Amino acid sequence: MNYLKRLLVGKPLKSSENDDQSLTRFAALAMLSSDALSSVAYGTEQIVVVLVTLSTAAIWYSLPIAVVVLVLLTSLILSYRQIIHAYPHGGGAYVVSSENLGKSAGLISGGSLLVDYMLTVAVSVSAGAEAIASAIPALYHHRVLIAVVIVLLLMLMNLRGLRESAGFLMLPVYSFIAIMTVLIIVGLFKIVTGMVPINATAQPGSFVPGISIALLLRAFSSGSSSLTGVEAISNAVPFFKKPRAKNAAGTLAMMGIILAFFFTGITFLNYWYGIIPSEQVTVLSQVGESVFGKGIMYYIMQFATALILAVAANTGFSAFPVLAYNLAKDKYLPHRYQDRGDRLGYSNGIITLALGSIALLMIFQGSTERLIPLYSVGVFIPFTLSQTGMVKKWYSEGGQWLRKSIANIIGALISFSIVVILFIYRLNDIWPFFIIMPILIYVFYRIHKHYQNVAEQLRLADEVKLHEYEGNTVIVLVGNVTQVNIGAINYARSIGDYIIAMHVSLDENSEKEKEIQKEFKEKFPDIRFSVVRSPYRSIINPVTRYVDRVSKKSKKYNYTTTVLIPEFVPNKAWKLSLHNQTALRLRLRLSYRDDIIISTYNYHLKK
Amino acid sequence: MNYLKRLLVGKPLKSSENDDQSLTRFAALAMLSSDALSSVAYGTEQIVVVLVTLSTAAIWYSLPIAVVVLVLLTSLILSYRQIIHAYPHGGGAYVVSSENLGKSAGLISGGSLLVDYMLTVAVSVSAGAEAIASAIPALYHHRVLIAVVIVLLLMLMNLRGLRESAGFLMLPVYSFIAIMTVLIIVGLFKIVTGMVPINATAQPGSFVPGISIALLLRAFSSGSSSLTGVEAISNAVPFFKKPRAKNAAGTLAMMGIILAFFFTGITFLNYWYGIIPSEQVTVLSQVGESVFGKGIMYYIMQFATALILAVAANTGFSAFPVLAYNLAKDKYLPHRYQDRGDRLGYSNGIITLALGSIALLMIFQGSTERLIPLYSVGVFIPFTLSQTGMVKKWYSEGGQWLRKSIANIIGALISFSIVVILFIYRLNDIWPFFIIMPILIYVFYRIHKHYQNVAEQLRLADEVKLHEYEGNTVIVLVGNVTQVNIGAINYARSIGDYIIAMHVSLDENSEKEKEIQKEFKEKFPDIRFSVVRSPYRSIINPVTRYVDRVSKKSKKYNYTTTVLIPEFVPNKAWKLSLHNQTALRLRLRLSYRDDIIISTYNYHLKK
């Protein structure tokens, strides 16, 4: 068991090794940008698909829409760079919103993002599994299984630790970056050298009958799904090499530039080559075919795309545990999300995310496309809140707040518009948001209330006064008269002033009961022997009643009460199943009684 | 939770209410004979199907084969009546074989039957589910689910207790008995009055080219599957009203007569009416159609057959728990199979059987026909062993042993022949028997060895000498300095002579550690405060090491060592998840250390 864990997860790391375990920019880009970069695989398509519902001539509108998306991207990147510098301990939207707009805004951000990371993992992994299944059709019926296996692999990788998973992710991410760069450069080269004449469905600016603001807004809101994943870096600042904020901001800028280049490039090529979306082949694949022809380069591109989609899920694995940690630190999630595992990752967060996304995969049986609008809402609400928060922060800090705020104001406005557009035009996809979020917020507050109550109850008075007890009553549970009793009674005598051996008899006045009583009296003449009868065969209730009675009496004499439960500890784990688990249940029940200490006398079976 | 249990299972019964909870002959027949009686639904068919592989003319051989089956049945019934009188405490084949032929023979019988009862449940319930699905074709794809639901219902019924489940079973069993009786009487009446002339495929005694002993033996071994279930009554003697043995023997005789009448009747009608087995319609259904015509009586018969097949599974639920009880009493199965539940049933046996047969249903997806030969082997091996055992018993008791043995000798010989025939002609169906049985026997012996070892280790010397300790060292685990510490330290002082407060620090030399140390010293100036550092963040290892050190020292001073672990007990169960389960894991680990008593100080959170 332990060996298996070591094999899969690696040897434990010291807490002080934390510093070594941090990311260079180069590794961080691989680790944290796959979500954002992989979305260029479908970003352009999302815009064009909406536009062609009107007519193919409307495709030219993808160019101005791409410009607005770029403006949004720029403002987001600038805004998140400011957030990184202002909050170098990480936390992103949750921290920024709660510090500037109040706890509820923070929790809405945090809750949305928690759910969103699960969606990211489910959506990306099932896209990856589908890509694999397209390549090997025999696997088609097993794609949910494949997706689950990928999630489990990602989980293990992340439990092994950051640096090692970054190493694993370098290849897919940098391959994708390389091949996309080649695609766009070759594509533009062919255009500039006149090798490919314009083939567009319509000139920019041509009037398309039936065009409406609503359609353009829907196309824009769809296209902005490319921008999900941008916040990942700001959440993960503490993982960077020092100087952390500077390195994180640099990585974010780099990612923004690459993303902008890819998105514009692909949208432009798509327009110029006059590509019309089809059911079977993705837009990106059509662009690739037009530029490269259906040769080796095309297949490399397809493969790299499939790979980056599969690993995009890893962004969720980096960001979710840190966000859960921040929520747990503020007492809105269970404490355990603060614990670091053997390899310094926040293991509980990693495991929760894996289980959550596996559940989503099971529920939707791998058809996760419908989740994309939900996913966009979950991203743009925190975007809006965190940027509004930044504006408020600059304002409250005074000085040249408007200059600092300009990126944030634009970002907040555009993000907010997207949220509104999604609410209006995509309600039939995003309604679960309005069910999940209130529940989540309620749970956060209940947890918080509990921890507050506990803290209040535990607070010590300034002057602590200890109580002096006169002595201790020990009740020793006795089954048959065996070797176990000797050890238990010896211990009881070492701590107790008054010892009672208690025997539970299942049959009333049976022979066996009398026999045991006689034998006990013979072997232990000085110990009081007390029989508790259990006509209903459950030993729990009669024991509890008897212990209550003794404890009440003890209290009167200013004694404490200890119940000593002997338990077998076999030398092999399977043998545990051969002994009744009554002790466990009894301990559980007694744990609810006041003023009773439950002690376990472990008797080790040597063979 | 508790309420739900009461609702489903009923209020607990006193152990002394055991006597009321026993069966009249009338109820016992319903309760224990459904397995045997339901097998007439397919017994004749099993014979005829084998014969027609040669030619339809061979069907007349079913008559002599039926005679041999009747001989076998008679010898089995007589033999089991003797077993009932000789072993009025129940146990059947397992007890008889182990007492007379040695433990291994007993365990082979017991093991075969345990597996067999699971097979019975799975086979009968899926036959019942298929009957329901034939009636309502929309349910066809859910028949595994239906089967599982039936198993769970049977489980609940049996957990509720014997009498109540017998009540529930009266209707199907007695309806089936009634309709079969009517079928045979009407059928014979029509023959005797000459309303139906003989329509048989061949006269008895006609020569059928190609007939071979092998074919006849296979037909006979198939037909004897009707005799499974006969042993159920001898296992369940303790459930009968007093005088138990007499009532059980009477019920068994009654069941034998009914079974013989049905089996002969149906086989004869089948021969006379010249019915040839077909894929779609069962032989019994064809007989019914010929006798009744396709009217209301026919449908009643079909429905009653489906019902009794479904409840035949209940025989397993009566017999399995008693057999498991007997094996557990002899220490070949875990003790817990001896525990009676709230309603006096052996709950663990009932639940194990339900889970086992649900597993079989899942694995075979409801296509359990292939299990029938396996099931026959599992029945006839214990038959052979128990009857051989009876012969040996009579022989060793001397006197007119041969007269008493005659039924047993015949029964043993025929049963043994069937086993041999099955081994020779059905090896491709019964091979799992040769894998399961050795494993099971091995497990039985391992369990037995363990219990023997335990008993040996626990045996007390004639003279018990208690040890006098000088005092007690108490190690109190301390997290933050809170209210919890007061109670824990108060208790520790009441039992201990030397108190150590131990704090685990996760970061080396951190600020927090120093702060806690200072605060503790301030509040509890008289208590020794000890810091244990955990560079790997797991508190388990360092604590264990520290406790080991203290315990070693304590021992030198003739002190006992107690580790007091404070634990939160929230007022609501869900809140348990909000507190780290470290205490649980720590307790588990420490339970393997020698000479350490683990005590829990439960701090109750009031809100």
From TrEMBL, chains A, B:
The chain crosses the membrane at residues 58-78, 113-133, 139-159, 171-192, 252-276, 296-323, 344-364, 370-386, 406-424, 430-447. It is found in: Membrane. It is a multi-pass membrane protein. Keywords: Membrane, Transmembrane, Transmembrane helix. Pfam families: AA_permease_2 (PF13520). Its main location: membrane. This is APC family amino acid-polyamine-organocation transporter. The lineage of its organism: Bacteria, Bacillati, Bacillota, Bacilli, Lactobacillales.
